[in-house]
Write a structure and sequence with these properties.
- By secondary structure, this protein is an alpha+beta fold.
- It has a domain of 229 residues: Enolase-like, domain 1.
- 28% of the residues lie in helices and 21% in strands.
- The protein contains 12 helices and 12 strands.
- The strands form 3 sheets. The protein has a 5-stranded antiparallel sheet with strand order 4-5-8-6-7. A 4-stranded antiparallel sheet has the order 9-10-11-12. Strands 1-3-2 form a 3-stranded parallel sheet, with no helix packed on it.
- Helix 11 packs across helix 12.
- The longest helix is centred in the last third of the chain and has 18 residues.
- It is globular.
- Bound molecules: flavin-adenine dinucleotide and iron/sulfur cluster (SF4).
Amino acid sequence: MNRFEWMEPASLESAVHGLGPRARLLAGGVDLLGEMKDHIALPERVVNLKSVSGLDAIEIGDHGLRLGALVTLDRLAAHPQIRHRWRAIAEAASSVGTPQIRNQGTLGGNLCQRPRCWYFRSEEHKCLKKGGDICFAVAGENKYHAILGGGPAFYAHPSDLAPALLVLNAQVRIAGPGPRGRGLRLRTLPLAEFYRTPAQRLVGGETLLSDQEIVTEILVPEPFGDSTYLKFRERLSHDWAMAACAAQIQISAGHIKRAQLALGGVATIPWPVPAAARALAGQPLNQATIEAAAHVAVAGAQPLRQNWYKIQLTQTMVRRAIRQAAFPEKADFVSA
Ligand SMILES: Cc1cc2nc3c(=O)[nH]c(=O)nc-3n(C[C@H](O)[C@H](O)[C@H](O)COP(=O)(O)OP(=O)(O)OC[C@H]3O[C@@H](n4cnc5c(N)ncnc54)[C@H](O)[C@@H]3O)c2cc1C
Ligand code: SF4
């Protein structure tokens, strides 16, 4: 780990102005410290967001749910009203890592964590994502990589919370420097517009955040139906998704009135699948409808040499997530 200056900002404004091209923001530190220990990140300054008060609230009001960026994953997993009304969030949070990671890791950090591609995490490999001129995954080990949204890089986006929040139509609130670099500018946008594919942004982060911007809050409206998050991982004890599906579904008289689906672990960004949602809307809830949605969910997939299995696995996750969201009373809660 390199030597760096440690900054404890007393306000959001100081945190924003403490950031820049040579600084990094730290929340729980689970991901960032790993990057620093592996010499992937060499910041000259680390800005501790935890010293800013008021960013760890969970509020439920008339317009839905407000989650501060510093809310920890274990609080999301355990919150009774979130488990009941925004179930996909609680299930996604409870599926992350180990109890220690959920206790330390925050919502903002989970959404902004960097790729797990082993070439990215290896100091010896200067790949495209780190400003080099080759993606080692193309001809190398690509079992865990993306089948959707790839090119020129193919890492799979690692966040479990993002697909769950996508199907719940979450918005993200962002603070950055104001006009002429003074004060604060706040903006709010749909989470669906927050992420960038490698074709849109290769070096740097996987979101539209500039190096001085901070996620402050996630806003989640009242759900229109029941939701769920289903994840397949190699190690049950703690692992990122090999394939995951989040679903929100509203059923009326045996028909699907409205649906939203998103995939995790198989694309370079959390991957909404509006075509699958359209295949469900207005249809009777039966095997043929579920098959049609599973089929279109992976349309356009371009697997690499070692990850063809992800097509079938994703379709299985989609089928199961639809059933689990449609019949929540029959599903087992994936508890922490
Ligand atoms: C062994 C292990 C297993 C894991 N398993 C999973 C898993 O199964 N699923 C999963 O989704 N994740 C997993 N993670 C990844 C991740 O560390 C956690 O999900 C955690 O949520 C990260 O949160 P943090 O607050 O510690 O982030 P930090 O490490 O503090 O930050 C992560 C990144 O986000 C940026 N950042 C943090 N907060 C903000 C903010 N508010 N605004 C803008 N940028 C911000 C930081 O600058 C940094 O680049 C795992 C990590 C480990 C080490
Ligand atoms: S997938 Fe991305 S992070 Fe991995 S080697 Fe290729 S360019 Fe680097």
